[in-house]
Design a protein that fits this description.
With about 375 residues, the chain is α/β, with parallel strands linked by helices. It folds into two domains: about 10-180, Rossmann fold; about 185-380, Up-down Bundle (Dehydroquinate synthase-like, alpha domain), CATH 1.20.1090. Helix content is about 50%, strand content about 10%. The chain has 15 helices and nine strands. The strands form two sheets. A six-stranded parallel sheet has the order 1-9-6-4-2-3, sandwiched between helices. The protein has a three-stranded mixed sheet with strand order 5-8-7, sandwiched between helices. α6 runs antiparallel to α7 and α6 packs across α11. It is globular and about 65 Å long.
Length: about 375
């Protein structure tokens, strides 16, 4: 089998790496950057730390601090207007996936006319933007090393993605120190997002040796360290391992891509405004059980990474059942709520099944299924 894959982004990783932001941006020859973050990072001092590093290096800063969860296209377009009018020559985004997705969307519109919704899908011929530096403060999205951004389309009421080289960072600065203050709930929510990236990429339609290796390591690491990080947020070893796993999982799904779990997550997030990581994790055990029909060898790998005991002569159905059990146990251990606990009615949940099949990622499922089968998965996950 012939496969192709690549590493997109140079990475500066380690404790204290973020303090070198200004130096690295200066070495890139940038003079005036758009600093993108949400106001919460200002409150905890992280935004000021990055801003100070940039200023000390002689870099002029234009601040865009209106980042929202599930970034809406309207805010991305507003940020792009600011970036163009200020004539910035680079972008530095600090925060979770929403900050980096916002920055990527802004970069798409630096030299391509709005609205951004016209660029949803795979885009190979967009005009280049400006150099970007991404600094994650969560261990989950992996957006610092991916070639896509997820944007909420306000006119359609759904989420969609721009996939393009214009969304690729010039440098990722991955510093576990920036995740030390992350609360348990956010640690869990972002951690299971990384888990979903790894688990889906290893079973997706474009899985390859690179994505498999990265995903396996990420799953093992998350299974071991996510409960520790949730219980003791000051455990530096757990924080280091989780941000490494998040980056590995991001690299894995950029190469191997994700499928049904994220289609469910995107749809639930758009309709019920639940955090992306929770949306992807809710039915992940059911999704992997479903994949075992054809991808049982890969699902066995997942079981091994999770420490689940699978008989040598186990059938695909038995392997899927063990994977489902192990994934559900991990997800519950870190306190991820089910749909019933989120206060969403089963009737409303089942109504979104047809929309799941319309999500872009649904094209990458291991084998075709109907909306009725998706509804069965959602029903199974509803109060699990």
């Amino acid at each position: 089998m012939i496969t192709s894959y690549e590493i997109f982004v140079p990475i500066l990783m380690g404790s204290g790496a973020a303090l070198r932001t200004g130096l690295k941006v200066k070495q890139m020859g940038l003079k005036k950057v758009l600093l993108v973050y949400d106001k919460g990072l200002k409150d905890v001092g992280i935004a000021d730390t990055i801003a100070e590093s940039l200023k000390n290096a002689g870099i002029e800063i234009v601040v865009y601090d209106k980042v929202l969860p599930d970034p809406p296209d309207t805010m991305v377009e507003e940020g792009a207007v600011m970036a163009r009018s200020e004539k910035i020559d680079g972008i530095v985004a600090v925060g979770g996936g929403s900050s980096m997705d916002t920055a990527k969307g802004i970069n798409v519109l630096m030299n391509n006319e709005p609205p951004i919704m016209q660029y949803f899908g795979v885009q190979k011929n967009l005009k280049p933007g400006v150099p970007m530096v991404f600094i994650p403060t969560t261990s989950g999205t992996g957006s610092e090393v991916t070639n896509m951004c997820v944007i909420s389309c306000t006119s359609r009421g759904n989420k969609d993605s721009v996939v393009s080289p214009v969304c690729v960072a010039t440098l990722a600065i991955v510093d576990p120190d920036l995740t030390m203050g992350l609360p348990p709930k956010m640690t869990a929510t972002t951690g299971v997002d990384a888990l979903a990236h790894a688990v889906e990429s290893i079973t997706g339609a474009q899985a390859n040796p690179l994505s498999d290796a990265l995903a396996r390591d990420a799953i093992r690491t998350i299974a071991k360290y996510l409960p520790v990080a949730c219980h003791d947020g000051s455990n530096i070893e757990a924080r280091e391992q989780m941000i490494l796993a998040s980056t590995f999982a991001g690299m894995a799904f950029t190469n191997g891509l994700v499928h049904l779990g994220h289609s469910i997550g995107h749809t639930l997030g758009a309709k019920f405004h639940i955090p992306h990581g929770i949306g992807c994790a809710i039915a992940l055990p059911e999704v992997i059980e479903y994949t075992s029909r054809t991808e049982y060898k890969k699902v066995r790998m997942i079981c091994e990474c999770l420490g689940a005991d699978v008989k040598e002569d186990a059938s695909p159905e038995e392997i899927g059942a063990e994977a489902k059990k192990a994934l559900r146990a991990l997800i519950k251990t870190v306190g991820i709520p089910n749909l019933k606990e989120l206060g969403i009615s089963l009737e409303d949940v089942l109504k979104v099944a047809p929309l799941v099949t319309q999500d872009t990622g649904f094209a990458l499922v291991p084998y075709r299924i109907t909306a009725a089968r998706v509804a069965e998965m959602l029903k199974s996950a509803y109060d699990a």
